Amino acid sequence: MYIIIAGINNLSYQLGEGFITQGNEVTFIDPKQFNADRIEKSLGFLSILGNSYNKKTLLEAGINRADYFIAAHQNDENNLVSCQIAKFINSDIKVITLLNSKKNREIFLNDDFDYIVDYDEILGNSINSYISDYSNMNIFTDNDNYTEIRIMSAGTDSRIIGKSVSEIELPNNSKVIAIISSSGNISHNFSNTINSLDKIIFQVPINK
Amino acid sequence: MKISIFGISHATINIIESIENFSDEIEIFDLNNNFDFKNEISDKKNIKINIDQNLINDPKNIIENSDYVFLASNSDILNSFFYHKFIGDFDKNKIQMIILNKDLYEMYKSKNYSVINLFDSSKNEIVSTIRS
Hints:
The structure holds two protein chains of two kinds. Helix content of chain A is 28%, strand content 27%. Chain A is α/β, with parallel strands linked by helices. Chain B has a six-stranded parallel beta sheet. Chain A binds chain B through residues 53-56, 76-78, 80-81, 84-85, 88, 101, 103-104, 106-107, and chain B through 56-57, 76-78, 80-81, 84-85, 88, 101, 103-104, 107, 110.
């Protein structure tokens, strides 16, 4: 596939690098020489200097034969116009835009845009996922036996989904007691993989 | 009748001269101040300049209480961005945006947007927009 990425930044760089590794052809468009140099040093001669809302720049990048156009600028006004002109030149191209501010979502809800990537949402989900993966709640402290009973939830985007209990990082010397599914079923079969919204109940020793 | 203009540019003065006789109040918005422009319009009455760097995040002040809106900055992408932000809440027949880039102008024209370009706009066209 041929993919044009408008805007060079950490996000688009990672994206482009991934596409290239998968065997795709990628061209970056950015108005800043500094950004183009960064691409040249690490990925090769893959960038065109110019504004991605300029028709001639897009034509030079090969917009007519491109399969995807990704607007990854860190301002929505640039992404908006770049996607519109890309789609105007090549109506078959799939247009993906980065949404930088939730307040601007409504301006991207039309046929010029095939997919909207919400930057805040990705960031929020990633943080939530991290917190739900690595936090667990104490539900009972047994002071006689110096143990705590804790519960860990698998959020909808949790990284523990699809893993078995033995693959999950639990506090040292923890013993899993049960897995409660979202429908309320209690399982003691710890070789099963964790599903979304499952809860893992486990015992962990505490200092005497 | 109140008319709002976003953007201080060469086009702004032309627009003001074309519409001042048909408007009770003209309010001009921009992200940055331009003192030459301020001096140039100092003899004109009923014109207010509103400089607000937060307009990008909160542009609705531009359309508030306005009968007509002109998007006349030197930046095509900003004019277009505000146009798209406003058409959900404001009659699109009462917004005009200036697009300097010919290719973008042709694209918006083909989409039936209210767009004017300095190559083919005239004072009469702007005036007729307001009077219609």
